[in-house]
Design a protein that fits this description.
This protein is mostly helical. It has 16 helices and no strands. The longest helix has 35 residues, at 269-303.
């Protein structure tokens, strides 16, 4: 059985980097563990799902944090997540917040393990259980993962659904259930919508319908409970509110977020006042157009060969991060299965295109991604604003190196 002993020299370096990344992550988390179930985003999820379970529209009334023992921090007054995600949390609200948070956290940890497990299988590599556990903990102690768990977020589940979908499509070529899982993943947060284009390129109209079915399954539940009203409110009230949060929170790592933050830092007060009304829509439209074109090109390449599907989908997920209006630090957990996949490819090939030093740099960049850090000098905040963007481009560079390796 092949093991990591083939790259034994970088092990000490890797262990040192993991400790460094863990130190930065735990020093950066200010909320005590006992308070994690009480504040956003989990509180936001829990209250939104509670309203839907009570057949109330969570988008039309303010969420009652204090009445339910929650803390509205960071402040979010109304439900802002897509209806599908609110439906997905409905079973959790059958329990009290502490137990619900624990169950949700267990699901996210299982998703992290599942994403790593299937990334190894996608690479067609026999990695020992001990090494898989090591990679799991290396991902777990990064800031993106710790802040994901702190806020009770959902991107680890999305990462697993995408990765498992790739595995299904590679191993069961007559099955299209992987496309269904991509649709389900997209319904939870929407930013992976370009996977719809890939589904069509991969399997034509039938593939697109499988994606739509996955996207619709949870949304139909919301529709049956409250009709069309939540969807109308989400489109015309919530999405504009989400756009405004780019100016409110400081940890956005998307290209749009970095540009907006830079303009805020250097622009005049008049520009800052007019930015949301005038410049932001241009950023959203241009970002969507670039993502659409990029995914179109990747999809055409993928259609020619099943061998390309893994790298293609991983590239698409990175493009989704890069051009999403919001990509907070916890969104970076989508890079974990990619880095594991690349590590397995290196061990198999020993090709210098995927030298372990490059992978260690990638891990370090991801692990230290936080976004602009408050209460620091402006130049450090700007470095933080562009750190995530550079990290995404770097992992894209690694994937293209792997693509050349397979050609």
């Amino acid at each position: 059985m092949t093991s990591l002993s083939t790259i034994s020299h970088p092990k000490i370096t890797f262990a040192t980097l993991v400790l460094l990344v863990a130190f930065v992550a735990f020093r950066s988390i200010e909320t005590p563990l006992s308070s994690w179930p009480l504040h956003n985003d989990f509180a936001h999820y829990y209250l939104s799902s509670s309203k839907l379970l009570a057949t109330e529209n969570p988008y039309s009334t303010e969420l009652e944090y204090q009445k339910n023992g929650f803390i509205n921090r960071p402040e979010i007054k109304i439900a802002t997540n897509p209806p599908a995600l609110i439906v997905a949390l409905m079973p959790i609200v059958l329990f009290n917040p502490d137990i619900g948070f624990m169950l949700w956290t267990v699901l996210q940890l299982l998703s992290l393990w599942g994403a790593i497990f299937y990334a190894v299988k996608i690479a067609d590599f026999n990695l020992s259980l001990l090494h898989k556990v090591g990679l799991f903990f290396a991902a777990l102690v990064t800031y993106p993962c710790i802040t994901h768990l702190e806020h009770g977020q959902s991107q680890l589940l999305i990462s697993f659904l995408i990765t498992y979908g790739i595995w299904l499509l590679k191993t069961e070529k007559t099955s299209r259930f992987g496309l269904f899982l991509w649709g389900l993943a997209t319904s939870l947060k929407l930013f992976t919508w370009p996977l719809a284009i890939v589904s069509f390129a991969f399997a034509g109209s039938l593939g697109f319908l499988w994606f739509v079915a996955g996207f619709a399954i949870l949304n139909l539940t919301a529709f049956f409970v409250l009709g069309a009203a939540p969807f109308y409110d989400f489109l015309f009230s919530v999405i504009p509110y989400i756009a405004s949060t780019i100016f409110k929170f400081n940890s956005n790592n998307s290209l749009e977020g970095a540009i907006v933050y830079s303009l805020q830092a250097f622009g005049s007060s008049e520009l800052r006042l007019n930015l949301a009304a005038n410049f932001l829509p241009i950023l959203f439209v241009s970002g969507a157009a670039i993502a659409f074109l990029s995914v179109g090109v990747l999809s055409l390449r993928m259609k020619a060969s099943y061998q390309d599907i893994s790298i293609t989908i991983f590239l698409v997920s990175l493009i989704c991060l890069l051009f999403s209006p919001t990509a907070w630090a916890h969104y970076m957990v989508l890079t974990f299965p990619i880095l594991v996949y690349l590590l397995c490819l290196f061990i198999k090939s020993h090709d210098p295109k995927l030298h372990p030093v490059k992978l260690l740099i990638g891990y370090s960049l991801v692990g230290l991604t936080q976004g602009p850090v408050k209460n620091m000098a402006l130049e450090w905040q700007l470095i933080g604003a562009w750190w995530g963007v550079f990290t995404i481009f770097y992992v894209i560079f690694l994937l293209f190196s792997a693509k050349r390796l397979q050609e």
